[in-house]
Amino acid sequence: MGSIMTMGEILVEIMACRKGQSLRSAGPLQGPYASGAPAIFIDQVARLGQRASIIGCVGDDDFGWLNIERLRSDGVDTSAIAVCKGAVTGSAFVTYRDNGERDFIFNITNSACAQLQPEQVNQAVLKDCAHFHVMGSSLFSFRIIDAMKRAIEIVKAQGGTISFDPNVRKEMLRIPEMREALSYILEFTDIFLPSGHEVTQLSRCADEKGAIAEIFSRGVREIVIKRGGQGCSYFGAGDRLDIAALPVAVTDPTGAGDCFGATFVTCRRMGKSAAQSLRYANAAGALAVASQGPMEGTSGFAELDALLARQDLPAPDRATQD
Ligand code: ATP
Ligand code: MG
Prior knowledge:
Elements: E1 3-7, E2 11-16, E3 29-35, H1 37-47, E4 52-59, H2 62-73, E5 81-84, E6 90-96, E7 102-107, H3 123-126, E8 129-135, H4 142-157, E9 161-165, H5 170-173, H6 176-188, E10 191-192, H7 208-217, E11 222-226, E12 232-236, E13 239-243, H8 256-269, H9 274-289, H10 301-310, E14 317-320
Parallel strand pairs: 1-4, 1-8, 2-6, 4-5, 8-9, 9-10, 10-11
Antiparallel strand pairs: 2-3, 6-7, 11-12, 12-13, 13-14
């Protein structure tokens, strides 16, 4: 089986220790933690024992090496990560509101993340890639969008499949070229992994049901909707499956969607059924929210099986998509 690959931002995350803490005044912070949505995704793939690789850029600094060493030790092939001299590794500072929402101060567009070069995406780098994951958050420059399109075309031409987590900020959707790029990526997508509110973002229909029908008509084969503490839903080949979230104590929600998506994609590639893949993905999301730190909640099958065995769960409700 070929490898699963992704491309995009590799960051450190530094977070407030207390809820309600503001970055307008001094206070206790924790980190740096390895982070970046595509980095978390690929770490989770490797934790599940699959061959995994990421194309990206870090600076030649401690933040960059922290990430490379972490990914490597979890089994990710880091040979496609460029270490850019003269650029600083990306970072995110996170604070938590009392209502559970998060605020971020990002240094991405002026960091090494933005140094990704089109030459990093080529046939040699992608030759072993059987599945490529596109993270919408990575598409913050037109150069990166072009590189992403190139990666998709190479992987598709060699018979590979594509997954896409839109994960886009609303401001990005207001830029016509950005909407066009996201729409282009959707045309090539096999597995679409939106959060609940994102399902309708790239379609003409304002309701979920209509948007799902429209997305299928564009060639997408499976849609998995992440619903945070409400669980998740699967749509594919006339089937609909819904699973409730596992009852875990929420410590830090960052990274749940990435662990979820990586687990679903990996399980499907391993030949597991949609229902089994969804159950594992739901468990991976739960373990992610239960751990402090964006990449600290990644998990292997042993941990996922242990969580699923601990819970007394009903089989997922199965209903035909109407
Ligand atoms: P992000 O806000 O980082 O983009 P996301 O929207 O991509 O996240 P979520 O829906 O927050 O992803 O989480 C992904 C999955 O993780 C959920 O579908 C669910 O399976 C699991 N999950 C999320 N929050 C919880 C929770 N509070 N308790 C249990 N499981 C959860
Ligand atoms: Mg998301």
